[in-house]
Design brief:
The chain is an alpha+beta fold. Helix content is 38%, strand content 16%. The strands form five sheets. The chain has a seven-stranded antiparallel β-sheet with strand order 7-17-16-9-14-13-12, with no helix packed on it. Strands 8-19-18-15-10-11 form a six-stranded antiparallel β-sheet, with helices on one face. It is globular.
Amino acid sequence: MRTAFEQMVVRHAFRLPAPTGPAGDGSAPARQLDSALLSVGFTLSGELLRHLSGLAPEVVLPVARRTLDTVRELVGDHVRHNVYFKAFPDGVPETVEFWHRCLMKALDDERARPGVVARLRDGVLDLLTLPSYGRYQHTYEEMLAVHDELIAAAGDRVTVLHLGGPPEEETTALYRSLAGSRTPLGEDGLEDLRLLARHCAAGPEPEAIPLRENRAVLNAARVAAGVHPLLDTVTDVLRLACALSGAPVTLEQPVRFRSLPRAQRRVLLAGLDAVVAAAPAKLADVRRHREAWKRLGERLHPHEHPRWPHAAAVFEVARGERRATSFDGRVDELLAAGDAAGAARLLEAAPGRLFRALDRLVLAAPDEAGREAVRAAAERAAPQVSGRVLLSVRGHLAARAGRFGEQRLFLNRSGRAWVTPDTRPGLPADVRDGLVRVVDDELRRRLPDAGPVLVEPAFLDVALPLSGKNVSSGLGVLPRGSVSAVEGGLLRFFVHWRQARRTTDFDLSALMLDEEYRTVSWLDWTALTAVGGAHSGDVTEAPHGASEFIDLRLDAVQGAFLVPMVHVYSGEGFEEVAESFFGFMLRDAEQAGRPFEPRTVRMKSELRGPGRVALPLVFVRGEDGVWHARWTHLHLRGTPSHNQVSEHQVSVATLVRGVVARRQPTVGHLTGLMADNGVSVTLWDGGAVPDGPVTFLGLQRPEGLHPESRVITPENLRDLIPD
């Protein structure tokens, strides 16, 4: 288990917990590790190299093997990336020529010829059924033999691994960071928290656990350790029941509760009884998840436990046997009566809901006095609203500066997105600006005295992570809405998948759009070469894993938008396959090398999501001709099978229009508020760092920072969000 925690720390923080053991001369294996890491785009910091060099070789060697395996998986180099056209990107034929080759091979095959001739005679031949199509025609070693070794370039990625503290200290710090996160964690983050909580639950808790889903994971570990769970709402109890049943704690899907041990049933009923006894009004929350409560009641049998009558009332509300007027229902009644000011006063008791309803309240206000009452209520409630909600509302208000009929982007909790014309009346500019000032004033008040701030310019356009849901883990992954520069002449996308039970075909595509979001061209298995690009060839099954690539010269790309996509053509979806991930590489125009070179990988993320079409990011060409990546982390529903770019080009173009118009709160916005508070904010040019402690904000921690410096990178960016 300690090894698993060490790997978690490396993945989450790019720190290696300080190995311990007898002293010795470990310099040789330490240098070998550093050399091996460089081949996959990593390197040891000077401090870490010195620490490993001072340990005995028998201590360093197993640590080196584990660390190398961890970073290789992080970058996607733990699998063999073969390609259909083994000389890719050279030697990729025109599409019609390729189909002709496949047909000629089939006619030359004595076993395949009769069937092919019969289908040709009938006039219908499915080209995908030709024997040479969709299956590797060469081994991985044969593919490697036709590629030159990659020549290192100054632009290749180098990620530094730093020396961490003692293993137990690093494990506890990671646990407290995840448990106390102000941003909802993704599926991978929740799973890591679950494993850490089993080890750390009996120890000191974080100062605060602001997110209910995190609390549910911790409560399950506390119950398993015989520690009383932390419960203060009825939904806390429901989430705990989900966690004890091994079900997701998000309550976004129907839950199948398992039969729980008697001791756990007592914990749930006793906790539920105590919550309702202390605040009977919380019964109103039961209606939001009434079906889940009914299913849980079938497992808990509350009527058999008369000593917990308040718990029994919860299930009576769920079954409709007891009335519990909801808070939202009372708000709706006031708004229906035209009393927006009264609704705002009522919502002051639930500050987060008040801020989420500001748009609706302002539009419902009949006059200037009503709108002023809404603004005043927001000002009074602002100190009780979480920083994440404040930033989310500010982003919403900024988007409301648009005109009637412009595109409105909707995102749900599962990562699905859709766009419709915005038919809402506009918010009065003075009211909108007044609410923005309320939000900014509150954020400014909460920002800590950070001391001197050193910020990397490229970090200013990184969006603040208001939610980690549906943002997959990986390397170089930035929050939805972030913008990052694309540096290099060659852009190469890749996807890898391995099917679990059924034959599965994923297809990598790239759609090019012009300034008006009209289709210019695309690259996929139906168009192998276009606009200076090439597709590596379609692979239609992946029992042992399969990879597809698209190679593009950026100076030859036509249009203003480049949209990489992964389609599920047939078989298992993104959440069913044994493994799947997407990423992109950047190379200098002269660099050759293998199709997959880990040193050139800029981003690699796991592919997970509910739809059948994944849109991880969009590349946008600026007016100056420079390309930037805009991170989306979106999914389209698609169809059960045969998804391809030609079928989705219109819906994707509409979605891209909405994504490009959407603006998220960024690091630059918060540093601007810091400067307003008198904090010294300096742009770091990559040179020497100050001698004293600073708050450093950047894509990667530089060497030489004062040990008391606070460091914010993408891995812990959630810590920058004010409480």
